[in-house]
Design a protein that fits this description.
Shape: elongated
Number of strands: 13
Order of helices and strands: EHEHEEEHEHEHEEEEHHHEE
Largest sheet: 5 strands, parallel
Strand order of the largest sheet: 2-1-3-6-7
Number of domains: 2
CATH class of the largest domain: Alpha Beta
Distance between the termini: 16 Å
CATH architecture of the largest domain: 3-Layer(aba) Sandwich
Length: 220
């Protein structure tokens, strides 16, 4: 799973974008200031989404520092039609730019393109006979594709990213409630876990991939 750092001082953008990108299978962290971003940037992030205007400094200076110190790919988020920002960002080594307001699907496409180009695309994950390709959002079993809904896929990603860890129902609800843009309650979670098991398990009545830990939750 690719790790993204969003550097943006608009809390609403951070919240909505983080939720959307997590639903697309990314691991997301955020910072609202240049100083906060530098504290986090030393971690092993695969890409930084960087706003040009920050409350404590220039996004351009931050881009130069991130590229110089860590070599992390950067996509600038710029005001629509701000040609100066685009040119300056690219000259400073930014890997791409996206103008605000942006369409989430376009942004995801640009992110994946940069990750491929820089050799940071997520590796394929294998669990038993299951094969999950986060880059293509594709799940196969014994070479045959399994078609999952957006919420089923998000649920599977949550398990994959917490392999061996017992996940409570409340934790799962926190992780997936907005993946399909709909409210997910406890009963709905039960339905989606059953649907996911029906698609990936050999015998859904005796699951071996997503196991029930009685009184605690579920574990991959």
């Amino acid at each position: 799973m690719a790790r993204l750092l969003i550097v943006e001082d608009d809390a609403a953008i951070v919240r909505n974008l983080s939720d959307y990108l997590r639903g697309e299978g990314f691991d997301v962290a955020s910072a609202t200031t240049a100083s906060g971003a530098l504290e986090l940037a030393g971690a092993d992030f695969d890409l930084v989404l960087l706003d040009v205007g920050l409350p404590d400094g220039s996004g351009f200076a931050l881009c130069s520092e991130i590229k110089g110190r860590f070599g992390t790919p950067v996509i600038f988020l710029t005001a629509s039609g701000d040609e100066y920002s685009v040119v300056t960002g690219l000259e400073l080594g930014a890997d791409d730019y996206v103008a605000k307001p942006f369409r989430p699907r376009e942004l995801v496409s640009r992110i994946r393109s940069v990750l491929r180009r820089t050799g940071r695309a997520s590796p394929v994950i294998e669990v038993g006979r299951l094969r999950v390709d986060p880059e293509r959002a594709q799940v196969t079993k014994d070479g045959k594709e399994i078609f999952l809904s957006a919420l089923e896929y998000r649920l599977l990603l949550v398990f994959l990213n917490n392999r061996g860890i017992v996940l409570s129902r409340s934790r799962l609800l926190e992780e997936i409630w907005d993946a399909a843009g709909d409210f997910v309650n406890d009963n709905t979670l039960t339905v989606y876990i059953k649907r996911l098991r029906d698609k990936i398990e050999d015998d859904p009545s005796e699951p071996t991939v997503i196991k029930t830990v009685r009184g605690m939750g579920y574990k991959l």
